[in-house]
Amino acid sequence: MLVTVVLGAHDLLSSEPGQQKFTITQVFQNNYNPEESLNDVLLLQLNRPASLGEQVAVASLPQQDQSLSQGTQCLAMGWGRLGTRAPTPRVLQELNVTVVTFLCREHNVCTLVPRRAAGICFGDSGGPLVCNGILHGVDSFVIRECASLQFPDFFARVSMYVDWIHSVLRGAEP
To answer: In this protein, which residues make up the domain named Peptidase S1 (predicted)?
Structure first.
């Protein structure tokens, strides 16, 4: 399977000047369990270093096992569907979400949009959840449908994998 990684994209139908394209030389997984949606994180080694700047930046990581309290305001992003049976958008979507703890598991950060049917959806998987400038989650799954108002959205809790991420980065550096 040939996959192209594109950094710096905003509009999927436009070849923007800030875009950088890469191939993947290695994939690192950490005991992913698809039946339970556990450890739903992976790291990709690109074929060359990215050029950092206004369009492409490195996300700050939390501390290992850092917690995130209920009510924390975060930003979720992605190009996923605009609803369970809706089309995918042309431009990157951003959504202000609130951390919740009900129905959540220790391996996840869960969010809702209060009093509004909005949230992550199919196609957003792998997208970031940024809270206070720190990457706290990686979009993982929804229950039943998108923006149900009954169930939170589930993100893999990045703080559980910080030590693993650093160990992979140490081994992957040229």
So the answer is: 1-170
Around Cβ 118, how many Cβ atoms within 10 Å?
Answer: 20
Q: What are the distances in angstroms from CA 96 to CA 86, 118, 167?
A: 20, 9, 32
Q: What is the C-alpha separation between 168 and 88, in angstroms, rounded?
A: 33
Write down the residue that tokens 């202000």 correspond to.
96
Report the alpha-carbon distance of residue 9 to residue 20 in Å, rounded.
Answer: 8
pTM: predicted TM-score of the whole model, two decimal places: 0.93
Lowest mean pLDDT among 11-20, 67-76, 89-98: 11-20
DSSP string, 4-47: EEEES-SBTTS--TT-EEEEEEEEEE---BTTTTBS--EEEEES
State the CATH number of the domain containing residue 131: 2.40.10.10
How many structural domains does the chain have?
A: 2
Q: Coil, strand, or helix at residue 137?
A: strand
Assigned domain for 50 exists: yes
